[in-house]
Write a structure and sequence with these properties.
Blueprint lengths: L8 H14 L1 H6 L5 E5 L3 E7 L8 E6 L2 E8 L18 E8 L10 E5 L2 E7 L37
Antiparallel strand pairs: 1-2, 2-7, 3-4, 4-5, 6-7
Amino acid sequence: MALLMRPEPLTADFDRLFSTFFDRSQAAQRWVPAMDLVEHDDHFLLRADLPGLGEDDVSIELNDGSLVVSGERKAEHESRERGFYRLERQFGKFSRTLTLPDGIDGDQINASFNRGVLEVWIPKPEQRKPRRIPIAATNRNGTAENGTGAATIEGTASER
């Protein structure tokens, strides 16, 4: 049986160790909250998990057909000079952009925030209904009938 990956147990541990001590600012900028976008019959529903945030920490903007959800989660830990501790929760600014279909009415978008979950209701645009175009019947001469049984004669006019 062949190995698909070469085992490097210490490399991953060293990378994690160095990123913990030297790369805190970059780790804070990597926070991307989880979001779901679900399509319903007449609207889209966006749900975002934003634990620890309130309504004032989140911004929702509609700009040129794009919905931008952004905000910031601030660090809540204290710095220590001695001792070891582990930080796994990510902090920092985030921004997610969703491209919306053409025809969305921005005034109809609604949002609510409850227990750390942001919900945004985006109504679907009115779909253009197909319009049926009647086809006129033609007689044997190739002229169109106007539906009353009388033939419609088409021609061109010329000036004299």
